[in-house]
Amino acid sequence: MPAAASSDVRPADLAHTVGETCLCLAVQRASRIVGRSFDEAFRPLGLTNWQFSLLATLSRSEPFTVTRLAEAMGMDRTTITSNLKPLVRRGLAAVVADGSDRRVRRIALTSSGQELLAEASEVWRQVNAEVEARLGEVDPITLRTALGELAKS
How far apart are CA 21 and CA 142, in angstroms? Predict the structure, then answer.
C-alpha cells in the first residue's frame, strides 16, 4: 500500500509516518546495522566493510580504472580515490599505468591484498550467513535482487 500523500499527513503524525513508511530511512537503518556487523568482524584484520568490498571488487582479473571502479561500486571518483588511499598505503592495492595507454591509471590488487582478501573472505562468509539468518522469512536472493534494482536507478 502506498504511503499517504503529504497533504494527508498532519505535522504531528509526520515523524511516525516517516518512521513507519520511509524506504530511505529503513534502508539507512539496516545498512548501518549490517555495516557495523561486518566492520566489527573485519576489525582484527584492519579492514572496514567498504575496504573488503573494494578488495573483492579489485580481485577480478582485469584491473579497473578509477572511473570504472567507481561505477562498479556505485560511488563517485572522489570517494573511491579517498577509500583506495589506505589500501594503497598498506600495499594491498597499487595504482599502475595501463599497458596500452600510459596516461590511464588502473588499480590492481597486490599479492598482499590477495592474501588478506583470502583471509577476510572466510570472515565475510560467516558474517554474511549470520546476517542472512537474521532476515527470518525474507528470502535473501529476493532482497538482493530488489536492492539491485533500486541501485540501477
Answer: 20
H-state helical runs in 63-152:
66-73, 77-89, 111-134, 140-152
Strands 105-109 and 93-97: antiparallel
Q: How far apart are CA 21 and CA 32, in angstroms?
A: 18
The predicted model scores a pTM of: 0.82
pLDDT tens digits along 66-118: 899 999 888 999 999 999 999 999 999 999 888 788 888 899 999 999 999 99
Euclidean distance between CA atoms 19 and 113, whole angstroms: 41
Q: Which residues contact 94 (CB under 8 A, 6 or more apart)?
A: 88, 107, 108, 110
Q: List, edge to edge, every strand of the sheet that includes 64-65.
A: 64-65, 105-109, 93-97
Length of the chain: 153
Residue position matching grid coordinates 503529504: 6
**Cα 144 to Cα 58: distance, rounded to the nearest angstrom:** 21
